[in-house]
Amino acid sequence: MSARPRRGHCYGLTAQFASAQDLLEAVRTSRGAGYERIEAYTPYPVDGLAEMLGLEKSPVPLLTLIGGVIGAATGWFLQWYSAVIAYPLNSGGRPLDSWPAFIPSTIELGILGACLCAFGGMLWLTGLPRLRHPMFDTPDFERVSRDRFFLCIRSEDPMFDLEQTQAWLAGLSPLLVGATPMRPEEPA
Prior knowledge:
The chain has 5 helices and 4 strands; from the N terminus they run βαβαααβαβ.
């Protein structure tokens, strides 16, 4: 006797497809039926999949720009403050705030700030580092890196009902339909 996972103990229901076209059709049909919390896993990028899933544009480029501007402004300010306020030194009759000397360090600190914000923003927005994901327990999920395409309807979806969603996925003609259980937290 096998116990069926309840909604709270199930990450979602998955359907396995053999081709990208089958997956795209399944995503289009599922979105049209009203499912919102849909994930897709593919062995290679599939054109149009992100738009069909309704993924939002990433804020990482904006974070990168902000980090670059803050880094450059910080570099400029540190050099200006040390040359003009903290330790003014007249060198060859040049002005204290001789900006051409500040450019290389300002550019380098701008690049450093942009890189740090891009990397940190990517980690924060993706929830990494995540060493274990519930999808890893899906039957045959290791084939997603070779030749299979997976569609997952999350249990957090407002329309999710275990039996109805399973019947819906089975109607999409997948190779296999299964539930992805949530792993219980390991005791400390």
